[in-house]
Amino acid sequence: xxxxxxxxxxxVTFAANAQTSKTIMTKTITAPVAPVKPKELIMHGDTRTDxxxxxxxxxxxEVIDYLNKENAYYKEMTAxxxxxxxxxxxxxKARIKEDDSSVPYLYxxxxxxxxxxxxxxxxxxxxxxxxxDAQEEILFDCNEMAKGHSYFSLNGLNISEDNKWAxxxxxxxxxxxxxxxxxxxxxxxxxxxxxxxxxxxxxxxxDNKTLFYTRKDEVTLRSDKIYKHKLGEDVSxxxxxxxxxxxxxxxxxxxxxxxxFLIIGSSSTLTSEYRILDAKKPDGRFKIFQKxxxxxxxxxxxxxxxxxxxxxxxxxTNFKLMTxxxxxxxxxxxxxxxxxxxxxxxxxxxxFKDYLVISERSNGLNKIRIRPWDGAEEYYLPFDxxxxxxETSINPDFDTQILRYSYQSLATPSSVIxxxxxxxxxxxxxxxxxxxxxxxxxxxxxxxIWATAQDGTLVPISMVYRKGTKQDGSNPFLLYAYGSYxxxxxxxxxxxxxxLLDRGFIFAIAHIRGGEDLxxxxxxxxxxxxxxxxxxxxxxxxxFVIDQKYTSPEHLYAEGGSAGGLLMGAIVNMAPQLYHGIxxxxxxxxxxxxxxxxxxxxxxxxxxxxxxxxNKKYYKYMKEYSxxxxxxxxxxxxxxxxxxxxxxxxxYWEPAKWVAKLRVFKTNNNLLFLDTNMxxxxxxxxxxxxxxxxxxxxxxxxxxxxxxxx
Length: 710
Description:
With 710 residues, the chain is α+β, with helices and mostly antiparallel strands. The chain has an 8-stranded mixed beta sheet with strand order 32-33-35-34-36-37-38-39, sandwiched between helices.
């Protein structure tokens, strides 16, 4: 151990060109050393010694001092890139249309619009009555509301059916604990009451005076209680409507698109349960739709006199669509409308008066299927690319033949499209503008390739790069992935990413197991006791792009955040030689300790994703891949690790402890930085421009490693 401690005082050599390692400057800066305070953690007869457990004391001045020292070290070590960071920020910002606005949508007699003004960080929410030519009514100017705050987030904007009241949630800390308030849209007055510690979301009953909302547990931040508030009454008298006592479940409330029902949902990773109530009778009693059954997942939509249910009932792994009468909602009454298909994942539905729209996923690609209720021929919207994302958008109106959806690809800016389901004509309402005059999507090549995993599974990779890029192993290559919770990482456009592509980078997304990119089985084979497939898939994708000479270990970089940060931590322990650099954003790296602490937000609800380490077999398996527990004496890639002091999803101390331990064990002089945002949480900085500054820091890290200075 003592010889590794010497590595904490590093002599870093900056190279003018990473390919030739021609040294032009040597600068010695001492990296921070976190004090060692051993703590023994014992479980199942196994003892782990955590030298940095003390870093979880958020209010401890010594902890804050250490984080500030790491920030100062990072800032000093990258001072030579500061001007480049500023230039990158201005370059990225210049591509963004600052005075931009969303495509208006009509709801309950008003057109709703979200817009930005030049030079301002936050959105303005507005509406117009009856016509887009009507006078604009500003609902909320978040720029004014954010003044004096280092972080600001408005969430859950919800308008009553009589269009008079707007409920909204505000978070000023980035802990995702929102304060709900109500605004009178006729007078502009914000009512004096405040509802603390909520999700920010709320739902108005049909009487326009009863507001339902979700509160969080003060310690774990689990969404566990539904309350109702009556306008004019004191918040302290708000009635508890539902308490979700199972600590592996979260609860929430919403109104059906038909406006007929209030719906309370309870969900865990593997199980769903809903309760329904006539929205016009908010003081009535919610009725269970279908009692929770371990492993039964379902979601409900209402139309006419029926409910439509997307479910995995009857071993429908990729889900199917069923219906049931309003009066008989238990599962024995459900009947098939769209049968289960082994090769197609049914993701969601949108119901219209004359059409059913089904969102599917086949061979890793989004599909939108239109099915007329009158029995006429159904059809799919046509998409040509293999590196795209298409999804239904805001469709609040039942009685329309217009479907609104969005489309984008790795090289095609995002578009909002209205599609006439009767005439099959589409109207592009808006395509994201890329300012500056130099962007042309025809200058880029999009490609989907398939890597072979170690067990023979084919794993898709979506990539984009400048045309003319040679496949000779010399290209800088950024490989991104997530790979958890069944979250599919679809190909998406980014004007910011052009700053890498135009400097010779190839960007790629590895659609690894643990996501749901190729169906539910893809997810099931990347969680619990099969979690290691997520990591080995990414490593095999990395080897593949090297073998195919898209890049080489000297130019390959990897990036992931949160659970994707766990991925980064695992791959640098398992195959550090493949990567020149790593960006790990808010990484979940201390898996065993976190999953054993049920006071930490999210822990108990995660048992079906990672396993419960109170069970010995899960403890043992987790310990085999947990990045923090598997740091060892070896050469690690250059690494930039980011976190937020107020992160409620992945606590700041996980990356802080990980970096402290890496400093002791790493056997080379590669860069290792910890950048902690002392004002933000899991999502990073608020405001569109502050967020871009963080990306500019990350990109300058990559470009500097490549010897690219401008």
